[in-house]
Amino acid sequence: MKPVPDPAGSVAVSMEVNGRTVERTVNSRRLLADLLRDELRLTGTHLGCEHGVCGACTVLVDGQPVRSCLMLAVQADGCEVTTVEGITPKDGLSPMQQAFKDHHGLQCGFCTPGFLMTLAGVEPEDHPDEESVRELLAGNLCRCTGYEGIVDAVMAAWDRSR
Amino acid sequence: MTARPTHIGAQVARVEDDRLLSGGARFAADIALPGMVEAAFYRSPLPHARIVGVGAGDALEIPGAFGPFTAGDMTDVSPYPDFDEHARPVGIFPLARERVRYAGAPIAVMVADDRYRAEDACDLLDVDLDPLDPVVTTDAALAPGAPLLYPDWPDNVVIGFPVDNPDANAEFDGRMAVSGRYEVGRHTGVPMETRGVVAEFREGRLTVWSSTQFPHIARTMLSYCLPLDENDIRVIVPDVGGGFGVKAEFYPEEVTIPWLALRLGRPVRWIEDRREHLLATCHARDLVLDLEAAVDEDGRFRAVRGMAVQDLGAAEMYPFGYSPAFTAIGHITGPYRIPHQSVGLLAVATNKTPCGAYRGFGIPEATFAIERLMDKAADRLGIGRNEIRRRNLIGQGDIPYTTSAGAIVDSGSHREAFEETVRVTAERVEHWRAVLGDDPGIRVGSGVVNYIEGVTPTYFMTTGHWTAYDSCSVRVNPDGTAVVSVGVSTSGQGLESMLTTLTAEALGVRRDQVRVVMGDTDRTPYGLGSWGSRSTNVASGALRIASDRLLEKATRIAAHLLEASPEDIEAHDGALSVRGSPGASVTWQQVATAANIRTVDLPEGVEPGLEAAATYEPPGIEHVPDEYGRVNAAATYTNASHAAVVSVDTGTGQVRMLEYIVAHDCGTVINPQIVRGQVVGGVAQGIGGALLEQLHYDEWGNPQSTSFLDYHLPGATEIPTMQVLHFESPAPAMPWGAKGAGEAGIIGPGPAIAAAVEDALSGMGVAEITRTPITAPYVLSLLPTP
Amino acid sequence: MKPPPFLYARPESLDGVLRLLAENGGDARVLAGGQSLVPLLNFRLARPEILVDIAMVDELSHLTIEDGGLRIGASVTQRAVETSAEVARLCPLLSKALPLVGHLQNRARGTVVGSIAHADPSAELPAVALVLGATMTVRSASGDRSIPAEDFFLGPFTTALEPDEILVEVRFPGKPSARTAVKEIAPRSGDFAIAGVAGRLTTAADGAVQDVALALFGVGAVPQRLPEVERLAAGENVTPELLDEVARITRATARSGSEDVHADPAYRARVAGELVRRVVEEMAA
After folding, report:
1. How far from B507 is each of B3, B151, B544, B554, B672, CA to CA, in Å?
2. Domain B17-23+469-616's class?
3. What digits encode the pLDDT tens for the residues B528-538?
4. Which of B433, B525, B593, C46 could make an SS bond with B471 (beta carbons 3.0 to 4.6 A apart)?
5. Fold designation for B284-460+622-782
């Protein structure tokens, strides 16, 4: 990691995004979400509230699901960042994506990448039953599905019966 | 034709899903054009003020900033026409002229290289506002001497529709009257995607990408407001992240951003942020219904009368926010045999965000009032709450039934759905009482309600401008694939999948041979858009006619190629075959090649091409009401019974949803998974409005719910497991018998949950629940203090 | 909703942080996890000249046990504390409270110390610090000082920290034998509390309450202990009558100033009484 000893308006950053090294000079105030969307054109990460409540912007940073609207791009310097584009197989869908499709876990799809990234960053055994799955999903808002299809998809993808 | 396998009712994967799941979808905010600048609006911080001046201040010190642009710069822009002759003229202008009437009203716009700098520039503007006395409630707005929002008007009434029906009044003579005041609070659709507009003016043509639910209407409105012909405008709807009605309004930003593109000669993008969304996208509901019923001793309702008073906010919204209130009056008797009604409307302007459309569109408000009143009458008479409904519900023998509002209920399962809901609910309550029985501070209750919903309505009465039809064009390419283009457009509910299925059904082709085109005014026939649970009806109706025409021509061509008689040709499995002779068959590719390329193969008298277009307006819709407001304003009527099972914590007032039961009938089900998703999603939104969501204002008209910290959408932990029981009463007049499922789910939760909470607290001396949201403090305020 | 311009620095040492804070005073803000600060930036409710990111400062990244208690450095995430078995053993109340703080995605970035320094009156962790008798270690270029939790919270979003100071760590005394509980009323899972209470309690051999500490959050301007209730309960057996009295005194003595769109002071006081009753009952059970 490069130290940044003096205050700066622009900062050189280097990070791994979906397995690819990205080097950019970013304005210190630029949000990670905007770096991903506007500069790297990874537009699968969506901004739904820009204050950390809705979860549409969830990405993985060093494997943990975080709000990319509450993280400055400079804070991701030296990190591994994974977006929905990064968890999508070259052909077809991942098992969780396929489960969302099979169980109608999406309608408009705007919130969907955020849900998928939260799920990509957790261990199924930490969320053993429906109640704990719902608690896990509480950090992502969906306005279309009433969560039924999403919960069904997670339970199916994690081999749980309901 | 002989029976063949059908796509109708089959559970098939949605065609939209892969791109949405993989990050490959394109929403308005994902559009980036060369040379594009981004816009930010300066919005009024005050609810009511005179605009003294707008100066650049230091804004132009921001690198790359242009502006400020204000109403005064828009000399070539016309205000929205005022189409409704019954309402006071509002003359909506894209940026505020002279006066602002709500906090959040757009006053000026700045553009810069990105949104960060555009906001920097807005921060530095020098805007001088002279505060005016705000009008914050309908009572204050109607008080003598109230400040006027529109100085040219004599008062703050946008539209008044008094009704005094002597037949209804006569029913009150000598009968018990039950009355109440029922209030559905201000909340709204709040899709996860905010609004967005991107505009580009190139080579004399304006292209506008907008997250709208009605691209053709938007283009027509743009041509009214901008100095351009409709020919010079193309409106494209990208992927839309939920609409729920709030994107079926034509907003000021949809004029301002295209105007900026014209003015600057550069593409301009504006993506609404969440704070703006809660201030400037339409609010909804905020309706108070004073309702009184004349009731026989056996519980039969004979008439209802009363008044709906709506807080419209600043009224600068088109289509107008009073439309849902009219729909509420049209549904005030629900699925009950109530012979007479006399319910009027007063829609009042206040200094709040203008109200507009939201899923349910007045029917949740009506249902809340009539169902609460029915509970009250039952309690008063000592009749069970389910029993009183049983005595009033429409039965099969009543159908077709004309309600006292003029709605002609042509089909349904009103009693069957209700009885099944009652039966299941009783079981579930028993289950939950057993589960939670130990704790005396946690009480379980349930409530069952019913409603009908007019779907595919006319919008003529309140827009003053457009009606109820839509359109479709079908074309078969030389390789046998089909393109279907429609005037409706999707905001995420699955219309592409629905049309893919129906086209495959109609032409006998595979689903993967169908491509649906929607949401592009250059590539689709004119249509009125997606709202009012209408898209399945109107698009499928037009598709049915167009595909029949196309099929007739294809049949003639196939018959010619096969040297058979057209009467013997049937379409299935991607081919046109002679019935009973499996070998005698031509593919759609052969037919379409003959029609489009090798026209020497066409029979005599058949013109080249394999394409058909049609429009469809369902039969029986009336566009103008009679003097008592009676009108059959919708194509058909769905029905449903809802039940909430809740627990109430008597120490804190917290209501927990335990389970929700829906018996739903929207006629023929095309895709059961999509219908269930619509119902469940609608119920979830209804639960939000019933328990959590409220757009608060302080006593000076300052908005208090401007972030997701204060406006609470329900999450996965607030929405319970649901049981959905399907009934299928096909609409007799509809081509596929389908009715439309988009809005229904949201209608029931308010009154069902109110009834369930009262039931849970029965015996504790709790007064009637008369308003939503039913928050924990509200519930606790009904309980005796310790 | 994009942040206003600011300068950004990411010193590698605590001295570097302290130097920047000394030079910039009130114009600087410390950036740790950003889960409270970045929303304020996005709303442009905070407009610091400079953000001092402490992510690279090794001296602030410790989660250690000392004298049977916990030392939590300023850059330690809530998630790291939540998932620590040692924390669950020494300070079970902290482990119980953390799942109530925001959502998983917030806790992955948000810090325990940052939440305490932010001093949101509705937040759980300041009340936990109060109940556990935590000590704040504060440092500036001119030296160190320790502030007991009871002297730290001065008002909504206001603490005893001076502009040139940073809260470098919070020390939680280990209370492995105490019974603890935390309960809150929030509109939804993960929301800030409308009212909440954190408590710890020890019992004598005969089952009577020996020592009890209770702190409300979300009810008033700062997290507050309930001395009258604690005195009343000490030495008593927990009976329904005592619980009624505990609830009554809580309602009567809670400083319930908070009013927002979600609840008025009267509601907050009333449910505070109910929550204290339930917390004491649960701890005594």
Report:
1. 14, 59, 10, 10, 21
2. alpha beta
3. 999 999 999 99
4. B525
5. Aldehyde Oxidoreductase; domain 4 (3.30.365)
